Protein 1
Amino acid sequence: MKDLEKKFEEQKKPTSKSYVDVNSKIIDKWIEEGWEWGQPISHEVFERAKNGDWFVLLTPTKPVPREWFCYFKDAQILGLACGGGQQMPIFAALGAKCTVLDYSEKQLASEIEVAERENYEIKTIRADMSKSLPFEDESFDLIFHPVSNCYIEDVLPVWKECYRVLKKGGILLAGLDNGINYIFDDDETKVVRGLPFNPLKDEELYRLSMEKDWGLQFSHSIEEQIGGQLKAGFVLVDIYEDTNGYGRLHELKVPTFYATNAIKK
């Protein structure tokens, strides 16, 4: 009987091909519950952006430096795993032509909602960023990629695809998790596990991730994140660190995220 139960549990466990579908549904659920990264900007914020008063986030708290961006007027910008109606509307208000790719239906719905409300056009594509991106070579001037590759197991293919679809001189702006959050308990007072954090390779971690409604998340090393960008051909231009924005690690000013500015030469 125990063997049969174990086999049944294994059949329910997502494979490397299906875990992104699990995450998509969980993120949709988070949005219904008021997840902060799934709430679209207001009309007032959009209007202020049109008048030059704006900022956007790649990580929880620090605004992206304006000097990191390209010239916005008519720039082709890809929001990679960047749905939610928070950053793309700002870029549209500044004159850019925006495309957003996300695997969450509700995140894409928010983009459409804001575009219809503010009367601008945006291309929305539901696709898995861990696969080949559905764009021609050298299609974009800038890729804006907030913290999200923690929801995929392998990031190097993402950097290679970003390099391919960017124009020569194009900019990749990415928000990245450094893995520290994954080693602590819920109160952020004790180190309770090591790295890497990969629930597809740890049965107990998988059970805990589903039980606590974390989704299936993955830590990535600096070799994977920055080293991966360099291997793909990018040149690193600038970087900054950021905290969670709340909790004990934030209070102790422990950086748990970083953002990178890289260029395709």
Protein 2
Amino acid sequence: MIKMLTHIGRYFLMLKEVFNKPLKWSVMRPLIFKEIDDLIIGSLGIVAFISFFVGGVVTIQTALNLTNPLIPKYLIGFATRQSVILEFAPTFISIIMAGKVGSFITSSIGTMRVTEQIDALEVMGVNSLNYLVFPKIIALFFYPFVIGLSMFLGVLGGWIAGVYGGFTSSDEFIQGLQTEFTPFHVTYAFIKTFVFALILATIPSYHGFYMKGGALEVGKASTVSFVWTSVVIILANYILTQLLLSK
């Protein structure tokens, strides 16, 4: 328990230090663009692939469970929309990104720690946390665009699976998408997304920056980073759902 509190305290001290002694914009700008390319653009392919096919699976499973002829077919589209927007896109994709993006962040910073590049930055008087972590935080502000794409492709995959699989008609599926639509559900999803983006940028950075040892420990730190990032995302998801959706 004491060890966990120590880690939490060090984590918040790290966040404070990230915004101290910021580098000049001319130095920070190329770092930010590089992180956007690595963390956001580099993730679009896997997110698009998973979202499309999982959306289709959600639709098929929903259709196969609605066997009662009295249940209208438009509920297939309704269930797909609710599943994709409320949980699948913001939460499930974020856990996948904890494995892809989080491990990449931890291993890249951890490698710099092992090869003493971070020590060299500090000797030169550079705020190493601002140099390494701040561009990742800014880059992941674009993370909601990834989740927006995931929502669209999840629903599109569901529509294709439902219509071309013979489970529902296009009109019924679209009717289900429009039935009892609550705009705040989209707002809720993007609020979660911003919180998850901060988690994805900072917890893996913490594990990479404060790791000790050699090359073997870099792999271990990446694994621990993925576990803790996933745990915190799930806990944050529970808390935000209670705060934003419960009445």
Protein 3
Amino acid sequence: MKNIKNFFKTFLLFELVRGMALTGRYFFARKITVQYPEEKTPQSFRFRGLHAQRRYDNGEERCIACKLCEAICPALAIKIELAEREDGTRRTTQYDIDLYKCIFCGFCEESCPVDAIVETRVYEYHGEKPGDLYYTKPMLLALGDKHEEQIAKDRAVDAKYR
């Protein structure tokens, strides 16, 4: 009996008919395609995009040159050099991120004790030459200044999970 059933399923192309029925059902359903440049999809407040450095309210950079982000980076994409000030505090003289190497894991952001390095929601960036995706300290601080409002909102939403 089972052999006869299998014969008729094969002869009548039962699997093909089931597949075509499924295709037909979705063919006439409402489409959910996003027209990308005009429409943007919603992002999570934990989205990891382009890096930025933050400043304190008085305008001073937050980074204390602890080098935790450089140590924890699995791709070795961060390079930091530091100098000690006259008042005994340490600050970075060089803070570079090579986005060709970066895997956007977020470890640098998690390891930072003062929330100096963050990953913003910016995902629309590109580089035409190899040096275009090598971000230096002034570039990172400029990005932080530009997107500080959104970064602060995201940090406030995420605060209860930290």
